[in-house]
Amino acid sequence: MFVRSLSLGVAAAALMVGGAQAADLIIPTTPQPIYAPAGFNWEGLYAGVQGGGEFFNGTTYGVIGGHVGVNFIPADPILLGVEATGEYWWNNAVSGSEFLINARIGAVVTDSVLVYAIGGTGIENTGGASNGIYQLGGGVEFAVTDSISVRGQVVGLGYYNNANFFDATKATVGVSFHF
Fold first, then answer.
1. Where is the signal peptide (predicted)?
2. Tens digits of per-residue pLDDT, 101-158?
3. CA spacing 20 to 30 A to 67: which of 6, 24, 59, 175?
């Protein structure tokens, strides 16, 4: 009788364990991505506007203009780019325009911050006369949305027909749309 009771107890325990296992559901889960999504994409075509001031021989000029360019990142965090700018400058006595082709080299400091150096050559038109000019300087650019950035830039301007290295300084603030 003891063996019979023991057998029934073992059989009942086995049935309960089997029932408990049948109640455990296997729920499939989606694995989490291993990588984090990338930050702002600095590569590609961009266009924008800028404004500021130009300081030449103790005189201040207002500056407004536009820029269009393209950036490449050959190796993280190095950025290389080409940019064309066109600007109009004025004060109470005189006005003119500048058109420059620039090269940019920079470093993507964080996903949303770019620090760069810029240098270029072009032409300035004033009162019917044209002069060859160059610029050299730098700036910082901040991403504010997935496709818009703001930047501040300071450059020194020089004339090819003048002995001074820099004849003027220009400081601008701009907004760019990245395509």
1. 1-22
2. 999 999 999 989 999 999 999 999 998 899 999 999 999 999 999 999 999 999 999 9
3. 59
In contact, 132 and 159? CB cutoff 8 Å: yes
CATH of the domain at 148: 2.40.160.20
Is 11 inside a domain boundary? no
Does residue 70 belong to any structural domain of this protein?
yes
Query: How many folded domains does the chain comprise?
Result: 1
Sign of CA pseudo-dihedral 138, 143, 147, 150: negative
CB distance 88 to 102 below 8 Å: no
Angle at alpha carbon of residue 146, lines to 140 and 149, rounded to 5°: 25
Chain length of the chain: 179
- Find out whether 133 and 121 touch, Cβ atoms under 8 Å: yes
**3-state SS class at 6:** helix
- How far apart are the C-alpha atoms of 169 and 58, rounded to whole Å? 11
Place of tokens 């600007």: 87
Say if CB 48 and CB 148 are below 8 A apart. Answer: no
- Domain hosting 73: range is 44-178
DSSP letter (8 states) at residue 166: -
Q: What is the pTM of this model?
A: 0.77
Q: Give me the amino acid identity at 113.
A: V
Residue 27 banded pLDDT, cuts 50, 70, 90: confident
